[in-house]
Amino acid sequence: xxxxxxxxxxxxxxxxxxxxxxxxxxxxxxxxxxxxxxxxxxxxxxxxxxxxxxxxxxxxxxxxxxxxxxxxxxxxxxxxxxxxxxxxxxxxxxxxxxxxxxxxxxxxxxxxxxxxxxxxxxxxxxxxxxxxxxxxxxxxxxxxxxxxxxxxxxxxxxxxxxxxxxxxxxxxxxxxxxxxxxxxxx
Length: 186
Prior knowledge:
about 55% strand; alpha+beta; Lipocalin; six-stranded antiparallel sheet
């Protein structure tokens, strides 16, 4: 009986320590995403000052930082957040991207999605997005970008903008992207 009590007590202490570590880890990951979001927004505003007003007037926006590798077939992944301008609530999200085509590269990029209406923002947060089809000729180093690494697209009820932070991507590619809520960070 005493061994069972010690084991049960030890399990409880370990569970509590694990929860505390997870909570601290969760908070640090959220802080990292917040920091990356603010840094990315500042870069977008510097490149295109009119975006600051567009973001301020929007019902919501999302910012993602992605890292990827490709050589004919590639992939990228990243994290970010969607910000509801009305409620001021942030929803932490993930992004995965797959490419196939005549392309090669290693890159880090930021994506800004500015929503045109609340319905589009809510659909993005609640259900995520999936879309594809892109061509890229991009080069960047030292947080500068050139070519297709800086661009914009109209998708559903939003405008998307991207900046290549560093690296090189060359060639046309078909890409599929998926966005979803991060269950561990919300």
